[in-house]
Amino acid sequence: MNLKQKVMSGLAWSAAGRLLAQLFTWCVTIVVIRLLSPEDYGLMALAAVFVGFLALLNEMGLGAAIVQRKDIELSTLRSLFGLVLLVSLLLYLALFFSAHLVADFYNEPRLVLLLRVVALGFLINIFALIPRAQLQRDMQFRQIAIVDFSSAISGSIVTLVLAWMGLGVWALAWGMLTIRLISTVGFNIANPFFCLPSTNFKGMKSFITFGSYVTAGGIVWYISSNSDALIVGKNLGKDLLGFYSVGLMLATLPMDKVSGIIKQVAFPAFSNIQNDMELFHRHFLKAVRVMSFVSIPVLWGISCVSPEIIQVFLGKQWLQAVLPMQIIAIVIPLRMISGIMSTAVFGVGRADISFYFSVIHSTFLPAAFFIGAQWGLLGVSLAWLFVFPLVFTLQMLLTIRVLKIETLSIIKAFSIPLFSGIIMYASVFVLRSFNVFTLNILQMLLLILGGALTYTITTLIFNRNGLHEVMNLLKR
To answer: Residue 112 and residue 40: Cα distance in Å, rounded?
Structure first.
C-alpha cells in the first residue's frame, strides 16, 4: 500500500471510528449536561486544566519523536519508557502533595481529592504511549480507530450511569479515567509492548531535543489555550466557568474530533514526504482547502443556531452558555487551519517552529482574556473573536517562511469558503428576523436548512473545484 492509499485508508478508518463514537457520545453528553449542574462542569474544568498540563510534561514530546523516527531499536524504546515512567511518577507525587494549594487558590476544598483522582489518568496513559506512537508511525489507523471507539463508548456509558446515580462531578472524573484505562488496554492488545523500562538514558539526546521542543511548545500552547478557564474560574466563579466551559465544549466539539483525525493521519504522512517539497506543498494546500470547505459552514452554522441548540438540547437553565458558544465558534475554523500548519512544520522536523507558534499564542491570548474578564463572559468571548485572527495571521506568515510556500496560495485555499460562509451567516441572520416558528426545534431546523441551502448555492457558483475535491476525497 503506497502513501496515498495509506492516507486515504487512515482518514476513512479514523473518520468512521470517530463518527460512530460521536453519534453515541454526543447523545450521552446532552443527557449528562441536563443531569449535572454548571458548578459540576466548572469544578471539572479547573481540575482538567491542571491535570492536562502535567500530562503534557509526563509524555515529554517523546510520542511525537517516535512517530517522526522511522527505525528505533528495542533498547531505545525501553529507555524512553523508563524516562517517561520516572518523570510521570515524580509529577504525580508533586500534584498529590500540592493539590491543597490549588484548592486554596480557588477557595474550593473539593478540588483536593478531585485532582488526585483525575491525575491517575496520566499515570495509566504512560503504558499506552509507545504502542500508540508505533501504530501511528506505521499508519495502522484501523487499530487506532477501534481502540479509540471502544474507549469513548465505555467512558460515555460510565459517565452517564454515574450521573444518573447523582454522583455529580465524579461522574465526569470516573468517565475520564475509564477512557484512559480502556485505551491503554486496547493499545497494548493491538500492539503489545511488555518490555521492562530501562534507566540507561545514553543515546537519548536527539529524542530529548526533539521532544523538548514539542513539550515546550505544548506547555506554552496549553497555558495560552487554557488560560481562559483559569481566569474565568478565578475572576467570575465556578458557575460562570461551568457555563463558559459547556459553551466552549459545544463550539469546539467538531474541531476536537476532526482535527484529531487530520493530525493523526497528516503527521506521519507529512513526515514521509518531507524530502519532496513540491509534493509536500500540494498535500498541505489540499489539507487547508478541505478543512476550510468543511469547517467554515459547520462551525459558523453552529454559531448561527446556538440559541436554538442550547434551548432544544440542554434547556433554558443553560442559556448563559449561548454567548460563548456563539462567538467562539466563529474563530474555530481558523484554529483548525492553525492545527494543520503546526502539523506541517512538525512533519518537516521543525518542532522549534511549532514552539514559536505557541509563544505567539501565549503572548496575546492570556492578556486578552484577562482584560476581557472585566466584562464577564462577553468580554472573554470577544477576546477570542478579536485577538485570535491576529495570532493566526502571525502563524501563517511564519509557516510561509518555513515551508517556502507562496502567501497567495494559502490565502486562496481558505478565502472562497470564507466568502461563502459570510453569505451563509448573513442569510441565516435575515431569516431569523422573520421569526417564522415559535417552537425552537422548528426554528432551528428552518435556520439550518436555510444556511445549508445558501452555502451550497454559493459553493456551486464560486467554488465548484473545492466541492469536487471534497467529493472525490469521500469517494475514495
So the answer is: 15
Is it the case that residue 195 has pLDDT exceeding 90? no
CB 141 within 8 A of CB 5: no
Q: How far apart are the C-alpha atoms of 336 and 256, rounded to whole Å?
A: 9
* pTM of this structure: 0.78
pLDDT digits (tens, 9 = 90+) for 166-188: 999 999 999 999 999 999 999 99
Count of Cβ atoms closer than 10 Å to residue 19 Cβ: 12
> Would you call 306 exposed, middle or buried from its count of C-beta atoms within 10 A (0-12, 13-18, 19+)?
buried
Percent of the chain with pLDDT over 70: 84
Cα distances from 426 to residues 147, 413, 430, in angstroms, run 41, 22, 6
Least trusted range by pLDDT, from 115-124, 272-281, 373-382 = 272-281
Task: Please provide the distance, in angstroms rounded to a whole number, between the alpha carbons at the two ends of the chain.
Answer: 14
Residue burial 226-235, b: 16+ Cβ < 10 Å; e: rest: bbbbbbbbee
pLDDT of 299 > 90? The answer is yes
3-state secondary structure of 196: coil
Please name the residue that has the C-alpha cell 490565502.
411
Taking the domains of the chain in order of start, what are their residue ranges? 1-203, 235-476
By the 8 A CB rule, do 115 and 95 touch?
A: yes
The C-alpha atoms of residue 41 and residue 32 are separated, in whole angstroms, by 10
> Within 10 Å of residue 311's Cβ, how many Cβ atoms?
17
Amino acid residing at 281:
H
Q: Which of 238-252, 262-276, 330-344 has the lowest mean pLDDT?
A: 262-276
3-class DSSP assignment, residue 284 = helix
- From the CB of residue 382, how many other CB atoms can be counted at a distance below 10 Å? 18
Q: Are 65 and 207 in contact (CB under 8 A)?
A: yes
Q: What number of CA atoms fall less than 13 Å from residue 445's CA on the CB side?
A: 5
Which among 149, 95, 148 is positioned nearest to 119, based on CA atoms?
95
321 secondary structure, DSSP code:
G
Q: 138: closest CA among 10, 18, 257?
A: 10
